[in-house]
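Quick one - inputs below.
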Amino acid sequence: MRGLMEKYGDRNEKTDADQEHQEMIGKQMRIRSIGRREETDMVRPISASLQHRIDSWLLRDYRETFMERIELVLEAEKLYEDEAYSTRYGHTLQYILENISVVLDEGPIAGAVKLRIPTKQEEEKILAEYHRWWNIPTQERHKKILFYYSEGWLKCRPDFFPSFGHLAMDWEGILDLGMGGLKKKAQDRLKAECSKDQEEFLQGAVLCYDAVSMYIQRCSREAEKQGRTRMAADLQQIAEGPAETFAQALQLLWIMILILQKVCGCGVLNLSRMDQYLLSRYRTDLKNGILTEEEALELLQEFYFHNNEIMVQTDHMSQEIETTSYTLEVAYDDPNYLTLGGKLADGRSGVNELSFRMVEAARALRLRNPFIVVRYHEGIDPKFWKYCCDAMRENTTLVIYNDETMIPALKYYGVREPEVYDYGFFGCNDPNIPGMEGGLRQVWVNLLKPLELALNQGDYPMEPLGDTVLEKTGSGQPLDPECQFDIDDRMTGLMTGAYYGIKTMAPEKMNSMEEVLEAYSQQLSYLMAEFRRGFEQDFEVEQEITRNKIRIEDCFLKGTIENGVTWTEGGTKYHKIVTQGSGLATAIDALYAIEQICFVKKEMTVGELAQLLRTDYAGREKLSVQWKNKLDKFGNDIDGVDRYAKIVTELFVKATDESNRGYLYQMWPTYSTDRDFTTMGSFVGATPDGRRAKEQLSENQSPTNGKDLSGLTAMLNSVSKIPFDKITGGPLNLRLHPSAVEGGDGLDVLCALFKTYMEKGGMQLQVNVVDAQTLKEAQKTPEKYRTLCVRVTGYSAFFVEMGKKAQNELIERTEHLM
Amino acid sequence: MTGRLFNVQRFSVHDGPGIRTTLFFKGCNLRCRWCHNPESYKMEPEIQYLREKCIECGECRKVCEHGIRIEQGKRTGLENCVLCQKCVDACMNGALKYAGREYTLEELTGLALRDRAYYENSGGGITASGGEPLLQSEFVGLLFQKMKEQGISTALDTAGNVEFEHFRRVLPFTDLVLLDIKIMDDELHRSYTGASNRKILENARRLMEMGQRMHIRVPVIAGVNDTLENAWALQKLIDGYECVEKVRFLPYHNMGLAKAASVNLEMEEFAPPQKERLEQIRSVFDFCAD
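Output:
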């Protein structure tokens, strides 16, 4: 393992501690290999040098900030303010990359940034700048950016230098062409027919390629100065040229990520199918004897570590905790993703020897990132499957998606061959066609909202408008001339506050489930059409405002340069709005409850039920407990309940289809709440499944918390009844007790369990193998559990870095024993 | 024909190989003092009271026509219970549970088949456990026959304290026997389980002579059977029989205590064996002991 460090000029002397570490891991390896049957079961440990860096990184102060970037952006703001937008953008990038410190880092992959803790005054000054940029009316913000998910995203991204990431570059193109090749492509396009707008845009792109080249040159010179000649030569090659070797490819990828994420704010990158686009270099280098398997493994571990090192130790979805609220970093917790395995366009399996090495590196490293998506398909190499299941059992940051549902689903929403086979994900669980889409547009569709509206003829019982709403909706007038989704909700994607619907059948008149479902369907379609109405208004504004205004990703996507059109205007082939159906299990349970209460047991009419819910079970609280605990629930393999999974999905897809017709941006439905199921629940009144007003909705694809009591297979059977072949993403979180899957037999059980779920048409699985007791211990003594890595929704976090609320949510998840 | 069960557990991974559905039959003819399923003792159905789930809302008292009360975590008047289950229906928190439901063959077959794909991929199947499933051997035999017709693997988890004819009804349709052999010394066995082990050991020998695939399972309780003598005696019993594929030593846990309380039984608490001792015991067996 030392070979590579020597080759790349590691300056550290071997110490006794190193020696000890080597012996220790030697011992671990021996222990691990006992009883293992196959060579592919092996996990080779990380180097002592890397372990040292990980250990010190884990202790890094969360206030450590890439201050140079902030200072230089502020300086650049004045320097180029008179230039055309895209030129200004390119010059800003150039100015930063010219002036930041070159930090090579100790490992064999160069590229790090200089961090320091800002003073109190500096902090205040930075916050004041953020306010200057973004503390403006939403209507004004909206003219600078179409979608921003949260304030935290906005603040460190100035309006003249924005990017919100959440996409995949054409990585293969970057490696094959290099900056020089890409620049030539842009220059050639400039020679063809161009409007003034296009010229400006393309000139900006040229400046960006030059800036990246220049920065890599600077790194090369620094490596030369330090006597790391091999590293210097590799950097020299990729400054303008293509990456010729495996090592050069990882080096170029890393510098790209560093610039995109830390300088431009373009994080949450889908690195896409690394085991495919790196494979030929890997094989060639091995054949030519310039790389060994061990060296490749070490490079991958180093590459992964870099992807962790650039982030702050925090959990971005726990906004309430100090480490998250503090951060001044541009992309402080924007994890990157990569895809392994899966089917190739020619029908063969994409699993290869590099897929193994890429999982192996993650298993040895045991950090949060990159978040690995392994794509299952029929006939997947059982050894690879077992290797991945073992990784999941160790809580490696790895999840499974199913090609057999994903590919048909993506095709349904218009993704063509062959690129459909390259699908991957970025956070959180958002599907992505690499290089062919711009950044994120997202909406959470609260699936309980339409039910509530259906039971109230379009009124919202927690803030009823009564006759006003009935008059308006009855006459076919829109309730809000602009859009039911107010602009804040459109910008963040979350449905907050009051929502009203259209006038549907009075609940008193509903005499069958069909009539209830018809009203539900009408309200759902109405809400999604309303979102579309608002989205199209916003998109029109955006197209106008962002015309020819470059963002860094425009330089590295497919179609933008060729067409001379930014992705925000529509330069790429695909355009999607991730449309996250939320609260699925609650919706299923609620509909089933109506069926049972009103039409099977006939305990009350739909009208009476609606009236009871309006009052939040006032005076009849026991009834809510009874319905909550005595009515069957989704997640127990009861066909009568589970059939509503199919019904709700069909209505959701129908509403999506209606809302997609004729538009550039296509809604791609997923079942995903992220961690917002409590927020969304707080805007929904009482529901007939016994849920009281404002209580949380069900999480992601999971059954209602604590209601899946018939065993894990029963739960998976229920979830697999969702027709996933029209759903394009979203997680199913499982928490397994370690005793259920321990030992060799336990691993076999796990492999069979997950495989069966995939065969039954399940879409996704992510697992935490940890018992509640351990999690509670970790809350008490976090220092002992610093590296306990858990899957949250579409990303992994260190448990001890999460907020208490998020921690408790994880503890409360149903624990599957045996 | 029906079978009387007190529980059905899907995704069982510790009752035989692979992913299994375990059927817990009610009624047992041993009274092991450490039993982890004491609600299985009696053949008759009963209503369990799970104190930790009870909020003492009084709903059960309202519906009970036989004066049964729950006060301060205790049930009184239970001798008048007619098992009408009105209290179970009325209980909102799952604190009252009916143990001893009758299942038809079709019902159980249907339930077991829902996880067929998991069995097939994992080498699993169904396990009849208890209680003592062989006290309902006729039903278990018919059930296993039906399962085998469907191509599903079957395991019989028994304490073996029955006449061999009960085995005979079930064995033709049984892939694997999980036989509990708790204590080798007869006197000790009597004092801790209430019965002699003579029949158990005799059945064990017969099964081995027949070449029946078996796993031997031993609950290990500190100060009771965690001795090397016991391990050696067991080793001697099975020595040379290749059909015994595994010997599993299962350390005592106290989860039976709450269940005992739920059916108004008092049970003493034992202790699990020392780790080192457990390892010593396992090391007596040169194969597949875990």
